Amino acid sequence: MTAPVPLLNHVAMSVDPAVLDEQGRADVLSFYGEVFGWTEGDNTGERGNPLILMTGAPMQFIYLLPGDPDS
Fold it and tell me: Average pLDDT, stretch 27-39?
C-alpha cells in the first residue's frame, strides 16, 4: 500500500507588509520558484495586493496577504 500524496488547498497566511514590497515579492518568488517550482498567480481583482503562489496542481495555492506587523 502506498501513502497518499499530501495535498494543500487554499492556504492563506498574513505576512508583514514589507515581505510583499517589490523586492520582497521578488525574493519570495525566486526562493519558492527555485525550491518548489511555484509561480506567481494572477491577483487581479483581489484586495490588498496579495502574492498568490501557484503550486502547479489545480486549485492548490498559497495566498500571502499583508497583515498587521504588530500583531
Answer: 96
